[in-house]
């Protein structure tokens, strides 16, 4: 029932490629992939769409995480607790994913994106360089709380997770956009893995679609991470604003019924 034609598979692959690039630079690739999967697999159950999206996403976050780690060298004292609590939060979110009304999330995500986009747009110096807000244990606790809360959201629904990681690491912890993107990729890899630990035993993954999109997502993630590292913080900030604006238009259109 979830078998797709070659044409649809190619189109889903292109969506995975674009999502991988966007996700590697500023996060939010799920806002490209999930609608594509919903269109390409109209008969699939919601949990199958979420699970297949996670399989595709982890391919891209694996290669972009490795690229960022080699080139940016993020501090393990931050990214390890961030990853650990993001993993735990995502497990919890995935376990309750089927019990949360999806309609409640879109308005919340829309408001958050508008606030985040406006904050970044009207504070041009935000994220230009790293100026940590906390030190010692307070910094670690802030990283763990970020991982737990955003990880839970990713396991339960997911779209925009990478962008929320980036802006929280910039706005709350004080990292530059480039360093925040590096840590966000590592945390997002952990949340994807955690969700798959729940979804795979349930038999929810549509493997053919997920693997094809995953290969394309991997290529997009590799190109996106290298582009972000080469262009630096100014490019990541500008790309973040453009992507968030596009997401606001897309989600806002759905909330207010413009696309129906």
UniProtKB/TrEMBL annotation:
Q: Which UniProt keywords apply?
A: Cell membrane, Membrane, Transmembrane, Transmembrane helix, Transport
Query: What membrane topology is annotated for this entry?
Result: Multi-pass membrane protein
InterPro entries, A to Z: TM_pro_TauE-like, TSUP
Please give the chief subcellular localization of this protein.
Answer: membrane
In which compartments does the protein localize? Cell membrane
Query: Which chain regions cross the lipid bilayer?
Result: 79-98, 104-122, 159-178, 190-215, 235-259
Report whether Cell membrane shows up as a keyword of the record: yes
Q: Which family does it belong to?
A: Belongs to the 4-toluene sulfonate uptake permease (TSUP) (TC 2.A.102) family.
Query: Which PANTHER family does UniProt cross-reference here?
Result: MEMBRANE TRANSPORTER PROTEIN YFCA-RELATED (PTHR30269:SF0), TRANSMEMBRANE PROTEIN YFCA (PTHR30269)
Q: What is this protein called?
A: Probable membrane transporter protein
Q: Which organism is it from?
A: Nocardioides hankookensis
């Amino acid at each position: 029932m979830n078998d797709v034609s070659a044409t649809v598979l190619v189109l889903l692959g292109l969506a995975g490629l674009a999502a991988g690039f966007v996700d590697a630079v500023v996060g939010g690739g799920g806002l490209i992939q999930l609608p594509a999967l919903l269109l390409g697999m109209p008969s699939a159950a919601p949990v199958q769409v979420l699970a297949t999206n996670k399989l595709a996403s982890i391919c891209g976050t694996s290669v972009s995480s490795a690229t960022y780690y080699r080139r940016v060298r993020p501090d393990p004292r931050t990214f390890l607790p961030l990853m650990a609590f993001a993993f735990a939060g995502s497990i919890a979110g995935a376990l309750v994913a089927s019990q949360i009304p999806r309609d409640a999330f879109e308005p919340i995500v829309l408001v958050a994106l508008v606030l985040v986009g406006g904050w970044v747009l009207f504070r041009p110096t935000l994220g230009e360089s790293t100026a940590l807000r906390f030190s010692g244990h307070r910094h670690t606790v802030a990283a763990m709380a970020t991982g737990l809360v955003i990880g839970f959201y990713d396991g339960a629904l997911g779209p925009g997770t990478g962008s929320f990681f980036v802006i929280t690491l910039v706005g709350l912890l004080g990292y530059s956009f480039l360093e925040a993107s590096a840590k966000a990729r590592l945390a997002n890899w952990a949340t994807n893995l955690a969700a798959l630990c729940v979804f795979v035993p349930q038999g929810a993954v549509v493997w053919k679609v997920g693997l094809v999109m995953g290969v394309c997502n991997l290529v997009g993630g590799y190109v996106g991470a290298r582009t972000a590292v080469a262009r630096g913080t100014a490019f990541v900030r500008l790309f973040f604003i453009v992507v968030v604006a596009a997401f606001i238009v897309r989600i806002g259109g759905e909330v207010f019924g413009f696309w129906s």
